[in-house]
Model the fold of this input.
Amino acid sequence: MLTRIEQALEQQFALLQGPHTPPRLLAAMRHAVFPGGARIRPQLCLAVAGACGQGQSALAMAAALSIELLHCASLVHDDMPCFDDADTRRGQPSVHKAWSEPLALLAGDGLIVMAFDVLGRAAALVSPAEGTRLPALMGVIARGVGSSEGIVGGQAWECEPRVDLGRYQRAKTGALFVASTCAGALAAGQSAAPWQRLGECLGEAYQVADDIRDVMGDALHLGKPVGQDAHHGRPSAAADLGLAGAVQYFQGLMQQAVDAVPECESRDALRRLVQGESERLVPAVACERALREAGLTPAAPASQISPAVMTSPLATAAVNPGAARGARRRWATCRCRPRPSGRPGAARWTPASTAGWPILASTACRCATR
Done:
């Protein structure tokens, strides 16, 4: 599947080559897309389409590519100085470091346009019956990156004085996962509703995993800077729950994702894909280490969770993710330590359960209450 995705992406970029495309812009766009990461979003889209009987269709591939291009565009913009100011991405210089800020901005914009152009071009490759699925398909993908509940909105929540952690995570990361599962079903001519829950669980789990790795990881292994949540004062499950609580919450979300795969011919294969992603994101050995260093056993009951974790409204969800999904901590901010980006620092705390990990100190202000 990965080979098919890579080849299809190369084919789309080949269509841009020519005297009318500025060569440095094209190079910057390619830099953002190749080499790719895990390509989990397009894989998920194609896997769902396959489970619905249409995994080889041109429409399903167009949806998968569109989603991946939008994801790559979001990373380009996220790395820019006005947001994370990250020097690296996927083990290489970020686009603005390699090609300049103006070209990075334009490359991200170009990838967004390219994503919807891919969908438009698919209309000429599919049957009239499949073509009728395009409006719904474009709608679900557009909402996944939109300003209300999509990536744009998620990024914008970082600029607000108060942030609901759950809403922030669902928009910034979860929405495109929901788009991936729903688009796969829609491309196959099936209802998206049975597949939405899988996307929701995976999306939230990915954001929690990113928060965990931002504390536990190293830049060389992750291919990008670590400690960014603390440095930029962003909402974080690791800060809200403590490292051990975040690990437990992640494990619960991944189990929910496994359970959320609907009945279909390839259900076992899809479940294995989800389980494999769980191990790739936060390996079991790292989970066990985090829990043991917090004085917990790997499968700790609620009575063993540290007081720092239990004080959070998400504590119930950390040990029983099916409960208290709506309970989210709201983050207060102060303006006594403005950063170069101009965004205020979020007040946060460093729970005792994160002690011993390499990235600990928060540069954000702690003077505000939460």
Summary: The beta strands are 88-89, 92-93, 163-164, 330-331, 333-334, 345-346.
